[in-house]
């Protein structure tokens, strides 16, 4: 035994090690190592200054990067109370080129791009002023200046521009008549001014986007959040927002349907996202829309489509509204969708002029699903969404550290690996007790 | 005698098991299908269905021979099947590939069984085979005045909205595309098909 055992044992150990190396290399080749996605905060700051009546003052739009990123642009909309403040001008920060892209009552939209380079590489935990906005105060009161949550901070990830904005921070401007009327605009880059930042109450949550899809007596409100939360929409024809509709679950992507509204009426609404304990919540600014008219004709002039969500691991919904030449909504049509996910023609259902269908692909791998809208045998439009069976479930709360293993196949691999190792262990034990 | 066979059998089982696991894990990494031309760097949500391809034979003949110039279907939004495009007798061949709103690119293909990768640069909004500040200004004009330039799709990343991400796409992909191999001025006019 003393002569044969070491030979056999060393042979078995060599085989076991070889097996581990082969299987291990195969498993490693299946692992997906995910780099941390950079995230950023856009914040407004007026350097902590109180403002006198009829005084010009600056509001800086500051970028806070939480990790390294290659930033190649930003697009943001700043909302303010036009009864209390007047927007005066926008000033570029050094090395950045800004352009006002929209300006209406209480809103100013700005695009900021790096001046010379394609992108600017910025380190984490830094603050950078992207643009400076000058306002003039009108009345003594407290006034909010906010950044629209739909704003975008573009950074390069895997060669593609990606929105990495994680949250926005608003600003309360106190306008008081006790301050001397110094009609001067402080310099944006004045390093002697100490910033007095207020810590955000709910940094991890953010309303990423809010969109509306309007018919003559109903509306769909599309909301995307940073974290799963319950959505509540308060709405009404007056600013008191007396009506409320709530979402059903805690989700990152929600569609809220509001029914029973009046044709051609103007409505205001506000989105509130609450966590499970209802202990903290984030609200959007008060937004507004005007419902279209209902068409008396059936002649389609144009089509509006909305696919939600654009990336899914399960089901995506396609919503469609048909308009006549006067932009009135046409009801009682019989449209259908020919989807590359099924190759069958699926009839759409209608609720108050909004036609919808759900598409649930069953592919094994990531694919763009193309959906063609068909009405009366004619293809009127097409839309697409990305089906990714390995995509993170939108309604699951994210773990702090994402697993380095991803996908169903990897789970199978681990099971095979464990079973194989157990089998090898049993055989190994048997061999050692051979003599 | 019985014991003397047990060890080799055990070792054999372990090796077979390891090979089976290895093959199972790597099954789809070595597809035996025909070669493809994979178009990369296309925005994630974009799904182009056709691409213009010009094939030019590679010979010592000073006369440049263009084999074809036609629109080719894209499989799964990203792939071109080489076997449906070329025959073995045409190889080696230079393929000039131009997607709408993208720069023309060139690649040498010498086998129908190999997978090739071509990096696509999207952002040529005025179809001059250049991505430069003119394209950037066009897209900014579209954002400032959405009702302007309605005949062109400026939503380069197919997220259903034209915004700074599309401007960034133009900026990141700025450059010059390859000239058309048979056009005198090298311009990519409409297909000769």
Biggest chain-to-chain interface with counts:
A-B, 55 and 42 residues
Unreliable parts of chain B:
none
Shape of chain B: flat
Q: Count every beta strand of chain A, where a strand is a DSSP E run of 2 or more residues.
A: 30
Structural class of chain B: alpha+beta
User: What is the oligomeric state here?
Assistant: heterodimer
Beta-strand percent range of chain A = over 45%
Strand content of chain B: 15-25%
Q: Number of DSSP helices of chain A?
A: 2
The major pleated sheet of chain B works out as: 4 strands, antiparallel
Q: How large, in whole angstroms, is the Cα Rg of chain B?
A: 24 Å
| Total of helices of chain B | 3
Could you give the topology of this structure?
The complex is a heterodimer of chains A (435) and B (193).
Chain A: H1 4-30, E1 40-45, E2 51-52, E3 56-65, E4 69-80, E5 85-92, E6 96-104, E7 107-114, E8 120-122, E9 126-137, E10 141-147, E11 152-157, E12 160-163, E13 165-169, E14 171-176, E15 207-214, E16 219-236, E17 243-246, E18 251-258, E19 266-274, E20 281-283, E21 287-290, E22 302-308, E23 311-312, E24 316-323, E25 336-339, E26 345-347, E27 349-351, E28 354-359, E29 367-375, E30 378-387, H2 408-432
Parallel strand pairs in A: 1-13, 2-14, 23-30
Antiparallel strand pairs in A: 1-3, 3-9, 4-7, 4-8, 4-10, 4-11, 5-9, 6-7, 10-14, 11-12, 15-16, 16-17, 16-18, 16-19, 19-20, 19-21, 22-24, 24-28, 25-26, 25-29, 27-28, 29-30
Chain B: H1 2-25, E1 36-40, E2 50-57, E3 66-73, E4 79-81, E5 93-98, E6 105-109, E7 116-119, E8 130-131, H2 133-144, H3 164-172, E9 175-176
Parallel strand pairs in B: 1-7
Antiparallel strand pairs in B: 1-4, 2-3, 2-5, 5-6, 8-9
Helix pairs in contact in B: 2-3
Written overview of the protein:
Chain A has 435 residues and is mainly beta. Chain A contains 2 helices and 30 strands. The radius of gyration of chain A is 28 Å and the shape is globular. Chain B has 193 residues and is an alpha+beta fold. A 4-stranded antiparallel beta sheet of chain B has the order 3-2-5-6, with no helix packed on it. In chain B, strands 4-1-7 form a 3-stranded mixed beta sheet, with no helix packed on it. Chain B is flat, with a radius of gyration of 24 Å. Chain B starts with a helix and ends in a 17-residue tail after the last strand. Classes of the chains: A mainly beta (435), B alpha+beta (193). The interface between A and B is large, with 55 and 42 residues.
